[in-house]
Amino acid sequence: MSSLDIARSIAFSGLSATQVQISVASANISNADTKGYTEKTANQSSSVTSGVGTGVTITGISSAVDKLLLKSLVGADSDLGAADTTNSFLTELQQLYGSTSSSDSSTTGTSLANTIAAFESALSSLASTPSSASLQSNAVSALAAVTTQLQQTSSGIQTLRSNADQDIASSVTDINSDLQQISDLNKQIRQQAAAGQSTADLEDQRNSALQDLASMMNVSYFTTSSGDLQVYTGSGQALVDSTAHPLSYTALPSVTASTTYSAGSSSGFSGITVNGVDITSQISSGKVSALITLRDQTLPAAQSQLDELAQQLTATVNAVSNQGTSVPPPASLTGTAPVSSTTPFSATGTVRIAVADKSGNLVSYQDLDLSSYATVGDLATAINGISGLSASVDANGHLSISATTSGNGVAINEMTSSVGSSSEGFSDYFGFNDLITGTGASDIAVRSDILNGTAALPTATLDASSTLTAGNSVLSPGSATVVNALSSALTGSTNFGMAGGLGATTGSFTDYAAAIVANVAGKATQASAAYTAKQTAQSTYANSLSSQSGVNIDEESANLSALQNKYAAASQIITAINAMFSALMTAMSAS
After folding, report:
1. Is 102 a residue whose pLDDT tops 90?
2. What's the rounded Cα separation, in Å, for the pair 402 and 408?
């Protein structure tokens, strides 16, 4: 081969190499804003034949990604995924509790504390005229607002738990998609590498899938010598090795306050499994981890606080309401405590049970020595002995006392009665004059007959004089004793137990409600601050990786300009060599 042939071959190789480099530079510029894309470089080397340079060749197209920086970014993605989810849910949780008022004494806010304060205000107004039907109605409505808000807040918490459960299922679907994508890309990368083709773009796609996976759950990973990316849970359970191992999870159709997750249990929330192994506890970061924590810890803690408030409110209000009776007295009283005729009855002191007409005038009465009765059946028998009364345990398992003559009603004064281990008053123990029903925040409510107006508030009291005379008025509808006692019980000191991270405390109901709202607000503020911090950290790593391996438009534009000059130079060399060939051919023809 002549020197001119060698020179032309070298020029053509330079031209070809430059074309590839221009193509790569153009792709870099075009994908500058493509998420996950990294700057590609056409690697060039000299071609040498028999010790003589014969041009240049492109050995491959690669990208330079700092593996340690990528690992840091993957970890930051997991942290941000968890922080973002927690912040979002706690913001919604805080909104459930309503807004606080700017004044501690104001009832214009919508928080639980303000709603309870509004009830206290209604009681204050009722105390001035206890017999007022309109003021009683206002008090009932104000109490109903409290119980309704507790129910709605509790329902909202369970809705958030259900949403978290559904989000876990949705995230598992997304995780499985990422795992399959990584597995598929592993196969494509092996094929491309075996064919001597560039795998850089496929590696970018795989890294993007890895980052998306990490945002949902923490993973560990490494790249094998064959170029496969293998992915594992934090505790080493394989997610992608020679194939993808999809996660399994089934969300519940409905969630209640009693729904829980327990590893290995067939009831409640299911576990997140892979190849039959429950990996729920292995997920310690990412969106799914946050959802599990919210569903199983944070939100149940909020429910626990509401239940403590609801249970104490129910016990306190009912303890006072059972000291009174309504006017006219009800034709019958049915307790709420579950009992049977054989239920042991342990009590001391006396209770007064009377029959009165619609005007509150005495028909008959008797003071019972409660220490004389061993069972609820014995007590019912004694009440049956009071003229004008009938007592029995009904089909629902509740003690019921009824007036036997139409137009008459039943009234109770607890006197010195002390029943059961908690030493409750007689009426309170059986729940004859309960104002509130329910066992917690999810079902707390004002007694239905009082709420719908078919029964009046038990604001009157049965005369406690040593002896009573038939025909005399024994009910005092104008007394504020019960209303004032109820107001004092709400504003006085109540012992609240530990619940949902709140320590045991003593204070008023508005104080405790305010503490609940403040606790949630504090958690929401912390979650917001954590999200901001994690977002900043993730952005720092992402920007560092982008700076190290991303596309710099200015640099690529300058490089493209240089490549254009290089291409033009190679073209000129070829033109010159062709001219030299023509001259040589002409000279040879002339000779």
Report:
1. no
2. 9
Give the Cβ contact number of residue 517 at 10 Å: 21
Cα 457 to Cα 402: distance, rounded to the nearest angstrom: 18
Backbone angles phi, psi at 131, to 5 degrees: -85, -5
Backbone angles phi, psi at 463, to 5 degrees: -50, 130
Residue corresponding to tokens 């509740």: 398
Tokens at residue 275, please?
């190849």
Q: How far apart are CA 274 and CA 219, in angstroms?
A: 14
Distance from C-alpha of 467 to C-alpha of 56, rounded to nearest angstrom: 121
b/e code 294-305 from CB counts within 10 Å (16+ = b): bbbebbbbbbbb
Helix (H) or strand (E) holding 475: none
- For 56, the token pair is 């240049």
What tokens were used for 302?
Answer: 């909020």
Question: How many other CB atoms are found less than 10 A from the CB of residue 105?
Answer: 8
**133-194 and 200-216 helices, crossing angle to 10°:** 150
pLDDT tens per residue, range 514-562? 999 999 999 999 999 999 999 999 999 888 877 766 555 656 567 666 7
3-state secondary structure 394-456: CCCCCEEEEECCCCCEEEEECCCCEECCCCECHHHHHCCCCCEECCCCCCCEECHHHHCCCCC
pLDDT grade, residue 6 (50/70/90)? low
The 8 Å CB, 24+ separation contacts for 42-46 are 42/17, 44/17
Q: How many whole angstroms separate alpha carbon 354 and alpha carbon 387?
A: 9
Q: Which residue reads 């989810």 in tokens?
A: 85
The DSSP 8-state label assigned to residue 374 in this structure reads S
| Measured distance CA(390)–CA(376) in Å, rounded | 14
pLDDT attached to residue 516: 95
Structure tokens at 389: 């009364």
575 in helix, strand or coil?
A: helix
How much is the CA Rg of the chain, to the nearest whole Å? 41
Residue spans of beta strands (DSSP E) within 64-156? none
Instruction: Quote the distance between the C-alpha of residue 50 and its chain's center.
Output: 72
State the Cα–Cα distance between residues 587 and 153, nearest whole angstrom.
Answer: 101
Show the tokens assigned to 21. 């480099």
Euclidean distance between CA atoms 383 and 333, whole angstroms: 13
**Could you read off the pLDDT of 444-460 as tens digits, one per residue?**
999 999 999 888 899 99
- 347-348 and 418-419 beta bridge pairing: antiparallel
Residue whose token pair is 């700076």: 547
pTM: 0.85
* Helix, strand, coil abundance in the chain, percent, nearest 5: 50, 15, 30
The residue with tokens 């509130």 is: 436
Structure-model confidence comparison of residues 227 and 122, the more confident one: 122
Q: What is the pLDDT of residues 292-331, one digit of tens each?
A: 999 999 999 999 999 999 999 999 999 999 999 999 999 9
- Within 10 angstroms of residue 213's Cβ, the number of other Cβ atoms is 28
According to DSSP, residue 282 is labeled G
DSSP type of residue 371: G
